[in-house]
Amino acid sequence: MQWTEVSVITTNEAVEAVSNILQEAGASGVKIDDAADYQHLQARPDEILDLTDIPHRTTGAEVSAYYPETVFVPEILPTIRQRVQDLAKFGLDPAPAEVTTQAVADESWATAWQKYYHPVRITRYLTVTPSWEAYQPVQKNEHVIRLDPGMAFGTGTHPTTQLSLTALEMVVRGGESMYDVGTGSGVLSIAAKYLGVDRITAFDLDEVAVRSAKTNLALNPVAADVVAKPNNLLTGIHEPVDLIVANILAEIILPLIPQAWENLPAGGHFLTSGIIADKLDEVVAAQQKQGFIIDNVLQMKDWRGVIAHKPTEDD
């Protein structure tokens, strides 16, 4: 089968949004080459791979999507270009937003992204590794999250994911119940299980994301009991949990805030990430207006994460 590769040259901050645009246009897979991932690795001299052996971008990012021959790519290109340009309206800089296409053979796209994906220590306790590598923990209490990025959603190394994982390490004490909203790859649910969360339901509006999450959950036996299903944020969900985590864009966090309030008990935590710096004040103000108390604001590059909780009688 012949495939068409559609590539978008963009900024680090727009990677996840561009990936979503390409997938919503019918892509069967996405490859992400983000210079920020490699800058992070270069800053860690203890990493286990030699970056000189890995071809990669040195600036910005390239998101490449793959479409089967059953999709008439010229018909969807104008919409893709327009939606990428429109990201500026949401506070994300997509520039240069260059969109190109090329034909690729079936065997080429199926493995093209593998050379970009290697084990990476994300936090003190969590390491993300591709499913095909036989990586073993090298330190006590190191948990290995195995992911298959074949349907894309990144490698778990994007700053927004790292902020979410860090927030989970700060908040989880063990035995909690949790909603993972906009689960994508399922990486946050898997990490939460390793950290001791008891009961987790993962939601995503995108059926492709739900399938991807289920695939990755199956790769990690610790997450065997996580339930992943399609849903629009927490619409129709009325069963309180101890913890809600959402790594999504600020514009999507805003309508989630009242839903999170309804589904958290007093003392329950609300962890949000995917917030570009310019949108932080708006998100924090909306949470405070709802009644949440802001505990911490985490920062990595241009991204922010917020740890908040629903007040108790002692607050």
From TrEMBL:
An example Gene Ontology CC term for this record: ribosome
Catalytic EC class: transferase
Keywords recorded for this protein, A-Z: Cytoplasm, Methyltransferase, Ribonucleoprotein, Ribosomal protein, S-adenosyl-L-methionine, Transferase
Positions with a binding annotation for S-adenosyl-L-methionine: T161, G182, D204, N247
Gene3D superfamilies: Vaccinia Virus protein VP39
Keyword Secreted: no
UniProt GO MF annotations: methyltransferase activity
GO biological process assignments: methylation
Subcellular location: Cytoplasm
Chief location: cytoplasm
Origin: domain of life: Bacteria
Catalyzed chemical reaction(s): L-lysyl-[protein] + 3 S-adenosyl-L-methionine = N(6),N(6),N(6)-trimethyl-L-lysyl-[protein] + 3 S-adenosyl-L-homocysteine + 3 H(+)
EC numbers on record: 2.1.1.-
NCBIfam families from the UniProt entry: prmA
Function: Methylates ribosomal protein L11.
HAMAP family: Methyltr_PrmA
Family: Belongs to the methyltransferase superfamily. PrmA family.
Name of this protein: Ribosomal protein L11 methyltransferase
Organism: Levilactobacillus spicheri
